[in-house]
Specification:
Blueprint lengths: L2 H26 L5 H8 L7 H25 L1 H21 L3 H28 L6 H29 L4 H4 L1 H15 L12 H21 L6 H24 L13 H7 L1 H10 L1 H12 L4 H29 L1 H20 L7 H25 L9 H33 L8 H17 L2 H4 L14
Helix pairs in contact: 1-5, 1-6, 1-8, 3-4, 3-5, 3-9, 3-17, 4-5, 4-8, 5-17, 6-14, 6-16, 9-10, 9-17, 12-16, 12-17, 12-18, 13-14, 13-17, 13-18, 14-15, 14-16, 15-16, 15-18, 17-18
Length: 465
């Protein structure tokens, strides 16, 4: 293979990973800056959660459009335009002076991010031979693991020492550099001028939006139960209607055919449960350390960095482990370790030595990194190039929805724990322990899908030599 081609593919994968990191970081970076922003907007900090939700919902709603747009107008053009929209929306967020303007700006930023995610993944996977899938996915996986952990401490530091506006202003030089790199590295590929599936977009957009909003509302005590259940059930009904429409229409917004591939279905079904479970950790752990154990915010943030260190520490070994043991064995055995890690969180107390807490966080960071990479890689192992656009769109929708669900499910588990303990309104260490037992059960449930895989599932992308 031409060395220049390999270098171009590597550079493109690194570019897409960097853009993914920027997009994933912005999903969580403002959480610790909300009090400072609320003071300038003259509103309650709790009301600013709409800025977080608007960004996540916009990402999920508009991702399905990206695959069609990339084929209609060219991946290079759409990817570059998405970077421009995301960067300009970051500037609008930085200069916002009210909750309304900030929410609109975050929605536009989410629109840009929605186009960057699947189109960037498509650009990489479309030009990567099967034997290079493992390495490419390993490169694309780290932003989703690292960004949610680094976001809160970065946002807290910037809002404390500089200004919350710098959270968004730093995207400007990064966006300009990413745009230049995209124009140099990314190619358009083949064009397909298919009609836009308006009904598919409306059904899927409303379905995903209401489903995510319903889960978030169910975790909030200030939202009536009937309202959250109504949104949730309406969202599910619209998603089922969307699936029925996508299977019958001649030119669907995206095809559901990849779900018939066993290896892709594992990352879509069991993988969604797993990604939701690990998405609870960056939310529940710092709260447990502070509210349950009495740690300071700084101490909690420093401890959480051990989770990040475990993620990075595992990266060099993930490819060797998958090649040595195969996907099925890794997903089952490592999946058990992930569930055991959540159970171990439930056994922590305020008296547990912090050195042991750090060791546990490092270990669980390693196992979640391994599982994340294995699931993401096997998902594309058997997808033919002709179906890659639909597979990347479906995967991106699910991954983004899982990211949003992680926080909501974590809060819901905490609420359920409080109800079991007699309806306590203030979270205690016991509530967090029970909540982590519930998340451990969710992570264990995700393993069932992997048990159905054949022994050599996804072997075509592994190097057994």
């Amino acid at each position: 293979m031409n060395s220049r081609t390999v270098e171009r593919r590597t550079a493109t994968a690194l570019l897409v990973a960097a853009v993914f990191f920027m997009e994933n970081l912005d999903a969580t970076v403002i959480t610790t800056a909300l009090p400072a922003m609320a003071a300038q907007f003259d509103t309650a900090a709790a009301h600013l959660s709409v800025g977080v939700s608007a960004y996540l919902v916009a990402l999920t709603v508009f991702i399905p459009v990206s695959g069609w747009a990339a084929e209609r107008y060219g991946a290079r053009r759409i990817f570059a335009a998405a970077i421009v929209v995301f960067t300009l929306a970051s500037l609008l967020c930085a200069v916002s002076n009210s909750l309304w303007t900030f929410t609109v700006s975050r929605t536009v930023q989410g629109l840009g991010g929605a186009m960057m995610v699947p189109v960037g993944r498509l650009v990489v996977l479309r030009d990567t031979p099967k034997e290079g899938i493992v390495r490419a996915i390993a490169t694309l996986t780290w932003p989703a693991l690292v960004a949610p952990i680094l976001g809160p401490p970065i946002g807290g530091w910037l809002s404390t020492h500089w200004s919350w506006r710098w959270i968004f202003l730093l995207n400007l030089p990064l966006g300009i550099l990413a745009l230049i790199a995209a124009l140099i590295l990314v190619r358009n590929g083949a064009y397909q001028r298919r009609p836009f599936d308006i009904a598919g977009f409306v059904f899927s957009a409303l379905g995903f939006g209401l489903f995510m909003s319903g889960i978030e509302a169910a975790s909030r005590p200030d939202v009536p139960l009937w309202l959250s259940l109504g949104m949730l059930l309406t969202g599910v009904a619209l998603l089922l209607l969307s699936a029925r429409h996508l299977r019958r229409v001649k030119h669907p917004l995206f095809d559901l055919a990849p779900l018939r591939i066993d290896t892709f279905r594992v990352t879509a079904v069991g993988g969604s449960l797993f990604r939701t479970a690990i998405g609870t950790a960056p939310f529940l752990l710092p709260l447990m350390f502070q509210l349950g154990f009495g740690y300071s915010a700084v101490d909690a943030g420093v401890l959480l960095l051990w989770l990040f260190a475990g993620n990075l520490g595992m990266k060099p070994a993930t490819t060797w482990i998958m090649n040595r043991f195969g996907f099925r064995r890794v997903l089952i055995v490592n999946g058990m370790l992930v569930a055991a890690g959540f159970a171990a969180y439930a056994l922590l107390t305020a008296d547990t030595p912090r050195a042991w807490v750090a060791v546990l966080l490092f270990f669980t960071g390693m196992t979640r990194s391994m599982q994340f990479t294995a699931l993401n890689t096997i998902g594309f192992a058997d997808v033919p190039q002709a179906r890659m656009r639909d597979a990347t769109t479906l995967f991106s929708v699910l991954q983004q929805m899982n990211a949003g669900m992680g926080i909501a499910v974590g809060a819901l588990a905490l609420s359920i724990a409080g109800l079991i303990r007699g309806g306590a309104t203030t979270a205690s260490a016991a509530d967090f322990r029970l909540g982590f037992w519930l998340i451990a059960a969710l992570a264990a449930l995700a393993i069932l899908d992997s048990l159905r895989l054949p022994a050599r599932a996804g072997a075509r992308v592994l190097n057994k030599s």
